[in-house]
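Technical note accompanying the year-one report. For the benefit of new consortium partners, we illustrate the data format agreed upon in the data management plan: each record pairs a sequence with a structure-token string. No post-processing was applied to the example shown here.
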Amino acid sequence: MRWDNLADNPAKTTTPGTGALFAADAVTTRTFDTPEFRGITFHEIRARSIVNRVPGASRMPFEWTVNPYRGCTHACVYCFARKTHSYLDLDTGLGFDSQIVVKINAPELVRRELSAARWHGAHIAMGTNVDCYQRAEGRYRLMPGILTALRDHANPFSILTKGTLILRDLELLRQAAEVTEVGVSVSVGFTDPELWRTVEPGTPSPERRLDVVRTLSEHGIGCGVLMAPVIPYLGDRPDQLRATVRAVADAGATSVTPLVLHLRPGAREWFMEWLGLHHPHLVRRYERLYADGAYAPTWYQRRITRYVHELATEYGIGPSHHGTPRGFPERGEERTPPAGPEPTQLTLL
């Protein structure tokens, strides 16, 4: 996927995959000299489409996504979405954390695509590539327009986030929940403060994220927790898992779904570099654990899942159906294509 294929007014190139990454007539590049955005560059683009079809081979249970941003200031060292920046010839390390693509026309595109005759109200998942409530959303305010369009069309949707900014849109979420199915999940893989500071430096603390769960629940919006990632040898001790599940239960979560760290290309290289700097004694153990690919061995995943589910039962909460975050539909529900071209979206797994 090249940048020119994303632009509403794509630049002309003689050969696919060549030419300038950001065409002058397609992109406005901005920087803001404020503490929260210092060192970050925003590339504002008028996208051609926004409702993306998930590849058929994906493990995810949903089939349509909306992602108003590319790149993420959360700067999670393990983020699977880092690879997506390489498709734009951007760096998957620091570039992913600091070069943020903003689809400034996302709200109007959502409204237009939901209004098309060919769209029949399929579930739309958000926050499955990069976080739609990352810091940039505080300035660009794309989500209120997106949520308003979804509400007005009574279109079911779900949101996965690490961002506390979702509480700004609480009233819109309540309004949408009155007319359609709304699912919200907050990602909290661990509550260890030192681990959080090193692997998720740009995110709100786990405690603040659990406050989001608590606030949503108090306002009648059930919220699940995606316990992701469980990081081998750093966040998988029984006492760490117990502390996290207990905190999730105390926050009033409707479910908890564990997901072991996976290291796909792009993320793997960046994470292993970080591991070598901060925990060099674990490098060989990780090489063995992930020797067969991006995923930890099945035995390890099952062990973590079984223990977390046992803890969830002990603390009075249950895992989501088939281990998926609350609000996501079952795979195989009606596939309803939007009008126009059907871009393929890289997915969570």
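Partners are asked to follow this layout when depositing records. DSSP finds twelve helices and eleven strands in the chain.
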